[in-house]
Amino acid sequence: MDFYLQFGWGMMGMSRDLIRDWNGGTVILSPRDLEPKQLEPFSKSINTIENGRVLFDPQFYLPHSDHIRLRSHDYWPSAYSTGAFFVGPALDTLLSKLKHLNDELDSAAAILPGLLANEIDGDWLNIQNAILNAAKKANFSRPLCQTIALSADACRSEEQIVRLLEHSAQWKSEVYYLVCEHPRGSYLVTDSLWLSNLLDVIAGLKLLGSKVVVGYSNHQMLIAAAVKADAIASGTWMNVRAFPPEKFREALEEEERRKATWYYCPQGLSEYKLPMLDIAKKVGLLDQLLPVNMPIESAVALLFDGGQPSTVGLTEPQAFRHYLNCLKHQTGVSVKQTFDQTIEEHDRLLDEAEALLKTLTGSRIKGQLRDFSEAIEVNRSTLGALIATRGGVLRRRWSTI
Amino acid sequence: MQWVGTAFPDLTKLTPFNEGGQKWVFSAVHPSDGDVVLKIIHPNQDPEAARREILAVQQIKSSRVPEIFETGQVTTPVGVCVWIRERRVHGISLRERLQQGPLNAQEILRLCLHMLEPLVLAEQAHIVHRDVKPENIIVDPNGDFWLLDFGISRHLTMSPLTRASSPFGKFTLGYAPPEQLRNVQTDIDSRADLFALGVTIYEAAGARHPFLSGTADVAEIIKRVESLVLPPLLLNCKASASFRDLIGAMLQKRRDHRPGSAAEALDWITDVIEHETTAP
Asked: What is the Cα–Cα distance from A91 to A115, expressed in whole angstroms?
């Protein structure tokens, strides 16, 4: 499974550095976070790195939105009316402008606009059809990547998921870009049904022969390896690690960003504020938070050098880089030769995290809302449901999907 | 029923064979076709259904489905009836065979292969059998299996004979998948037959019906079909794991969780059998 960078606020320099360090990679550009004039130069700076690629997400999830930055882009329609837009020339104009923009950015594939589905009903499916048909007419000179954006409620409904999968057999898109709102706005998902349905969608699309990129992901989505998702995308702030539809709705004041540096412990699948590392050091458990079998940067290594972690000066960007480096490594080793080996690998990850978190929790060391303890059983039960429903077919077709 | 002999003077040794709610069935000998079965459809049955049954067998052209030699209409004391004369396959029904005990692993694999072969041809002809069950399968003296009775088959390219507004479709309880039980006509395709075949195989391997055994009423059976997850079917053979997966997939409640087509299932069982015969 590949790892893409989901562009968010303050990620320009970091994206370039990481793509260079990784000897290539993909950045999903965000028009919400980039001014029109920034798009092309930034894209060029990524594309000129060897094996660097960009994708452009038009973020057309809520076209009624009044987001100033989104509206400032040339492709964004000046007037939008749900009924008329998708049956008239306005849709063709949108696709034509996006084709032009994708050409300018030299994107690796064209992510198509996709409305957020509050409910997967006939209207939403018809709009998806209309977008796809208009895109085919627009003659994009690159692969098309169809957006499927789901509300938390839509993703929780098995009936709606079945409708989506039945219908997607007609679309036959080469690539899908899947973004799903987390239930109750949570960062780590504790709703097994939501996670299980999400995996079911990915598996269904993969078994139809398509590629699937899961946008706005955090490390919990390492589980997508179990259905051989092609990539997950993540970024720095929480609002690019979970899909928050509200952020595309209106011109919000720049979000208040709480200044706290979180350290990601990959083997615990949890994040900790630096003062919590101080406590870990005090009770002799800090070494257990040191990443195992993966390279770390010197700024992170300093946390474990004997000093008090909160005083070694780990900055927020360094913590972000560490998170993204770890996730890049973890995605890279998540898919194995067979379905069973892949499941075993994720089970091993969960077992290891569980054992560590038990030890840490025993000493009252918790990652607050970023502690993975409650998510462990959610991931486990999701794997159980996957094995029961799709295990046989995935086992058989693993090498071909 | 003396009128039968009069109406079909070229048939000898006419012997009542079976009578269901929809037809009279006789065994007989035809001067050129040899041993045959004569089916006379009750006059109260929709002649269009009979026409479609005939069409299904003719379109599928499977060596695992008895060939139809001739069809026609005959006036009887109870009304005008459609009749079908087809090859008689000697043997016993799988239902009768199961009364002697479950099939062994090799017989189970063979049953699966032999049933998927005609179901693939049906799929190619856009036909769903809709009534795969032990009563509609014959095992001949060579141990080969034959699929019978396309009486409630659905031609996907033709308008359905069951009204879409009916809460339930045509089915045999315990074998039909949830979408067929609930008469979701747009959801009925070859994957419905895969479910019914999965149930048949599960039953044949254990000689007990996984959904019917021990149930008190129809509602409970429907509930089981729609929600009971069966334990994996484990055969005593080398390819047991892969076969377990195939049957597990065929028995999924949601059709999109089953193999994508009968053809995919046939490839799968072919690989299972190849593994069974070549693995050390």
From this structure: 13
Q: How confident is the model at residue A127 (pLDDT cuts 50, 70, 90)?
A: very high
Domain termination residue (choose one: B60, B87, B114): B87
Whether residue B131 sits in one domain with residue B166: yes
Q: How does residue A258 score in pLDDT terms, banded at 50, 70 and 90?
A: low
Does A392 contact B249 at a Cβ distance shorter than 8 Å?
Answer: yes
Domain that holds residue B37: 2-87
Q: How far is B92 from chain A (nearest CA, A)?
A: 33
Say yes or no: B82 and B111 in one domain. no
Which of B245, B246, B252 lies closest to A389 in CB terms?
B252
Closest CA to B178 of B134, B217, B214, B228: B228
Q: CB of A218 within 8 A of CB of A188?
A: yes
Q: Are both B251 and B119 inside the same structural domain?
A: yes
CB contact under 8 A, B257 and A391: no
Confidence check: pLDDT of B163 > 70: no
Q: Are B61 and B53 in contact (CB under 8 A)?
A: no
Is there a catalytic annotation at residue B189? no
B256 and A204 in contact by Cβ < 8 A?
A: yes
Q: What is the ipTM of this complex?
A: 0.89
Q: Which candidate in B10, B33, B35, B131 is catalytic?
A: B131
Give B207-215 contacts, CB < 8 A, sequence gap 24+. Answer: B207/B98, B207/B101, B207/B102, B209/B174, B211/B174, B212/B173, B212/B174
> Is there a contact between B245 and A207 if contact means CB atoms under 8 Å apart?
no
CATH of the domain at B30: 3.30.200.20
Clarify whether residues B200 and B266 are in a common domain: yes
For residues B221 and B218, what is the distance between their CA atoms, to the nearest angstrom?
Answer: 5
B interface toward A at CB cutoff 8 Å? Answer: 187, 229, 242, 244-246, 248-249, 252, 254, 256-260, 268
Residue B190 sits in the same domain as residue B112? yes
Same domain, B112 and B228: yes
Residues B201, B150, single domain; the answer is yes
Q: Do B248 and A165 touch (CB under 8 A)?
A: no
Question: CB-CB: which of A162, A207, A392 is closest to B248?
Answer: A392
| pLDDT band with cut points at 50, 70 and 90 for residue B100 | very high
Give the DSSP letter of residue A184.
Answer: G
Number of domains within chain B: 2
Q: Which residues of B touch A207 (CB under 8 A)?
A: 260
Q: Is B100 helix (H, G, I), strand (E, B) or coil?
A: coil
Q: Which residues of A touch B (CB under 8 A)?
A: 162, 165-166, 204, 207, 388-393, 395-396
| Domain harbouring B240, CATH code | 1.10.510.10
Residues B212, B120 share a domain: yes
Which pTM value belongs to this model?
0.92
Of B87, B107, B122, at which residue does a domain stop?
B87
Q: What is the chain A residue with the closest CA to B259? A: A393
Q: pLDDT (tens digit, 9 = 90+) per residue, B43-98?
A: 888 888 888 889 999 999 999 999 999 999 999 888 899 999 999 999 999 999 99
CA–CA gap between residue A99 and residue A130 (Å, rounded): 16
